[in-house]
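It is worth pausing here to work through a concrete case rather than discussing structure prediction in the abstract. The textbook approach is simple: state the sequence, then state the predicted structure, then interpret. We follow exactly that order.
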Amino acid sequence: TSMASIMLAYADLVYFINPYVTLTGGMFLSPFGLYPERMHAPWMNKLPDAPAGMGNEQVIPETELGVQFRGGIPIWKIKVVYAMYVSNGPSMVDDTSKNAGKLMYDNLVDNNKNKALGGRWGIMPLPGNPSLEIGFFGQQARVGQDGTPHAGVQAMLYGADVTFHHYFRFIKGTIDMKGQHCKVSVDKVYYKANPLEIVNVPAEDVNLNDSTYRFNNTTELYFVMISYRPTASEHFLKNTEYVFRYDYLKEPAFARWNTSGSRITMGIEYWLDSRSAFKLAYQVGMSDNIFFKNQNMLMFQWVIAF
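Step two, the predicted structure:
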């Protein structure tokens, strides 16, 4: 026998209503900050891996299944961009596994009758110059499974981002800076657990009568990345880019899925063209959880986009 699988990242239909409004329907990239829309693809990301909480172990949404309105509006000499959407939103794990209380974003068949409401507003404050953009974003949704004790559990996700891209003559190159800060807050409720696995949880949050416990279910994460590319060079150096990133993930202290920690990543990238590059990076990871070791890692990636 043979097996095959298909992974669908996103697929949507786009209708341009007018120069200021575009309608999108389907599975689209989430406007939840910079990373999902502008950095998720390997050829967009200047380093071989994603910031903590934004890669394989998703803490924030990367795609949405729903409908979105977006566009840009000039106001005086500045520009405001916006995206507003209705989607299935995330679902919360409420079984007895170690992931109880964690949000999952592959909610293709909505686990409840509620829909998530979200959006992002960005402002380009420099008149006639799009090099600087500051954004604010958020999403609110009911995440509990209908017909369960957790059916009414709500989640609030929000944050801010900034991006700056500019050529400086005195350093004969281009500086690119990006940063994003997010918080994910879920109602504090009780979950089933083995009493032996929650011995460190405060007594007031443990119910031994039915083997349940609760915790403050708030996650915080952020990253700051800066790169320099000597674009004025006449030699091969103009195709190199030097990258530094600091990222931090703080998950709930008493969640059994807590993998909190910070990382420093330094790398060099050689651009073959605008959508293809070689990347070499070294990462130092520092865990906040005593059950996880600090990790140092050398990474290499060759990315080609068609």
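Step three, interpretation. The helical segments are 34-38. The chain has one helix and 18 strands.
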